[in-house]
Amino acid sequence: MHDIRLIRDSPQAFDEGRRRRGLEPLAALLLALDDERRAAIARSQAAQERRNAASKEIGAAMKSGDKEKADALKAEVATLKDTMGAIEADEKTAIAALNEALSEIPNTPLDDVPEGADEDDNAQVRVVGDKPAFDFEPKEHFDIGEALGQMDFESAAKLSGARFVVLKGGLARLERALMQFMLDLHVDHHGYTEVDPPVLVRDDAMFGTAQLPKFEEDQFAAYAGKSTGEQEGDYHWLIPTAEVPLTNLVRESIVEQDKLPMRFTAGTYCFRAEAGAAGRDTRGMIRQHQFHKVEMVSITTPEQALEEHERMTACAEEVLKRLGLHYRVMLLCTGDMGFASQRTYDLEVWLPGQNRYREISSCSVCGDFQARRMNARYRSDKGPRFVHTLNGSGVAVGRALVAVLENYQNADGSVNVPEALRGYMGGLKVIGAA
Fold first, then answer.
1. Cβ neighbours of residue 65 closer than 8 Å, sequence gap 6 or more
2. Residues 330-379: pLDDT tens digits?
3. Which of 409, 431, 398 is nearest to 163 (CA)?
4. Predicted confidence (pLDDT) per residue in 297-330, tens digit
């Protein structure tokens, strides 16, 4: 969330950031809303001050025996009392109007983020590893999994509808092994603290990381015992990513500076409605309503944030390196980066069955954008300051499974188990048909 004071100090810089995202100028409208807010607050304060002063003057008039003046002051206080409700309501309305407008504005990209409209304008940072060579035509993951008898979309559709899957046997264990491997790597080698968070959260948590209100249609709401959410507190949101609960661990708090950076990781189910993905990746496991993901979150000072972004990205890369997967790192352009992000690196893994790269991790630095929404601060020498937040996939487990199936497939339909996962698979080296 933006600071209206910074927008007032530098409206041109704010509008330039919007221009780089392909958005219209908005500073003038926001400043007009802020003027209304300031005026409403001033009217409310003036009315309250006059009411307090008049109340004191009544006592003085009564003491001096000036009944006429005391009666006039009483009438004034009564009038102020009658109008205070409307004045305070106007104040709340003006504050809410500005906050609502600010809550729907994306973060400003950093200067080194390339300008562009979509994924075609992203910048390649580096390429790691080599594409695998096959002496046969490589298949896509769903053809491999279905032929093994261990990836069942038909049964999942009967249970839950489209964009779900049932994994069985070796593939179910392989997905579990991938998540355990990632968590162990981040905890034992990268210094993250493992967290097992709730996957049901309240409105405030979703607002804090900017899933609400802008992206409500992409979320799943879970209602308690009935199908409507008419009563306050009778529903929660299923998390779209563990970024939500992990980042909100510091909401409405002031942490000590020497505790930063704080690094959290979690492996959870994630839930996304995919409202904007109609017709895209309708077959297979690339884009599902329910999936596993290992998430990384860092809470830092402003001075630590950019270095932490590089570190976090390297942690995600290490997962792919140890799995022996070919990938590239992309710096997202202004038109492709997320709502809360200042800068984002995407890791795109090579899928030979699709003959293309696909995103498997996204690592973003958000500045104090989320911290302002959460009121998350740290105690500095100059007093409380907003923390900076970062988040990244470490990595998407389902997509990692897809990548392993396509990159480690054999001509007979079996799949080799990457060496890094064999200890989690009971020593199994090859997954064959069930």
1. none
2. 999 999 999 999 999 999 999 999 999 999 999 999 999 999 999 999 99
3. 398
4. 999 999 999 999 999 999 999 999 999 999 999 9
88-127 per-residue burial string, b: 16 or more CB within 10 A, e: under 16: eebbeebbeebeebbeebbbbbbeebbebeeeeebeeeee
In angstroms, the CA 215 to CA 222 distance is 16
Name all domains of the chain by residue range, CATH numbers in brackets: 4-103 (1.10.287.40), 119-431 (3.30.930.10)
Structure tokens given for 237: 């949101």
Tally of helices (H runs) and strands (E runs) in the chain: 12, 18
- pLDDT tens figures, 101-123: 999 999 999 999 999 999 999 99
State the pTM of this model.
Answer: 0.92
| The dihedral sign for the CA sequence 244, 245, 250, 253 | positive
- Paired tokens of 29: 């409208």
Q: How many CA atoms lie within 13 A of 362 on its CB side?
A: 16
Query: Is 58:73 a contact under the CB 8 Å cutoff?
Result: yes
Token pair belonging to 160: 């839950």
Contact status, residue 183 vs residue 267, Cβ threshold 8 Å: yes
Query: Which tokens hold the place of 123?
Result: 């910048």
Residue pointed to by tokens 């990692």: 400
> CA–CA distance from 128 to each of 117, 131, 310 (Å)?
26, 9, 16
Show the beta-strand stretches assigned E in 132-194: 151-152, 166-167, 193-194
Active site residues: 272, 287, 359, 362, 399
Q: What is the pLDDT of residue 263?
A: 98
Rounded-to-integer distance, Cα 401 and Cα 310, Å:
25
**What's the N-to-C CA distance of the chain in angstroms?**
51
Q: How far apart are CA 329 and CA 316, in angstroms?
A: 11
Cβ atoms of 107 and 366 within 8 Å: the answer is yes
Give the span between the Cα atoms of 374 and 245, in whole angstroms: 12
Length of the chain: 434
CA distance 218 to 275: 5
> What are the backbone dihedrals phi and psi of residue 309, each rounded to the nearest 5 degrees, phi first?
-65, -45
- What is the rounded distance in angstroms from the CA atom of residue 249 to the CA atom of residue 262? 10
Could you give the 3-state DSSP secondary structure of residue 254? strand
At residue 425, φ and ψ (nearest 5 deg) are -110, 20
